[in-house]
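[job 4417] fold queue: 2 targets
>>> target A
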Amino acid sequence: MFKNPKGQFGYLAAARKRSILTTSLFFAIALILYIIGIVQYGSNRNFFTLAAILLCLPGGKAAVRMIMCLRAKGATDEEHTAICAAIGDLPGSYDLYLTSYTQNFAISHMAYRNKTLVAYSGDPGCQEADFQKHMTQMLKNDDISGITISLFTDLAKYTERLKELQKMEERDPAFGEKVLHVAESVSL
């Protein structure tokens, strides 16, 4: 139920459930500890209160991740079906949510072949120029350059581009996996 690895279809939905559960558990345990301290000692000046307060720190971190996961949208079933029909043997990643200082990018799917990275976002507000700049910088941080990056918000155009890429012969499959790994590592 919660074991979708990053880059697979359904990852964001599983991450959303996992983050809600984790956040709920942290705060429930903190509340239980606080109540035990009040009942046991008649005051909030005890070790249980301290433990409850300290448990709120990872709970707060989990709450931030939960909020980000709730905001993130992955590929829909219709998008997944259309992409699966067009992708063939191209290496690709689903459900990536990239954050930058100025904008967040909800990437439903991303694929790579021969120095060409293509991505599809179901969010029409995703700006291609900002995405290209962000991905170029992230790849540059891992000493990867010379990649052509394209972002599509039209599913039909994206699947057509996937079919074109599929016809190309892959020169270095390991490099493609490395490029997609960088994208996955900087996503939510």
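>>> target B
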Amino acid sequence: MQKKTNFDFEKGELLLFNKPLTWTSFDLVRKVKYITKAKKVGHAGTLDPLASGLLIICTGKLTKSIDQIQAMEKEYTGTFKLGATTSSYDLEREIDLTFDISSITEEDILNTVKKFIGEIDQFPPQHSAKKVDGKRAYELARIGKVANLEAKRIKIYEFEITGIELPLVHFRVVCSKGTYVRSLAHDFGKELNNGAHLVALVRTKIGKYSLEDAHEIDDFANLLKSNTVTT
């Protein structure tokens, strides 16, 4: 898909970006707001700082479309590591438990995948942005408190293992709104009577929108500098 070169940010634009690793979703929103000078800017579907990939940002009147976009199914590729867990279910926190993986076979891994396809109940990570009594769960976790998080029904449409290099397992997953891939990695380890945590994650699709059509933020800034932008 050919990228646009002329924009009307107040009338409304739907912009695809590749969120840089370690940036928060709001970091990218703030950068887009600064370079576009748009009054209204919002994003559809948060990505954790340690994930990269497709983030959709809407400006102007198209911010009204955000809820609709967030409801679309998502596709991710990534890697989890067997044999260890962290309290955040990813690399944000240090390893807290280790496990022996010598008895785990490729067949065990492939059979476990089947148990996660379809509708499942999933608990958000303690280190998540879920609100509990007005506080973010991660805020409570960072002071040693456990948030009372409820399980949520989500749907895994597709889940495939794309490579096994133990202790690393590479995967692709297509899932519903509200799915925590960190929790999927953690629960996968538990299902194997072991442990696992997410070590890499890239969002590749949101509905019909694809990462391959996304802007890099620096390239987008340079594009705006070289064009007359209607605001």
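[job 4417] complete. Note on B: The radius of gyration is 19 Å.
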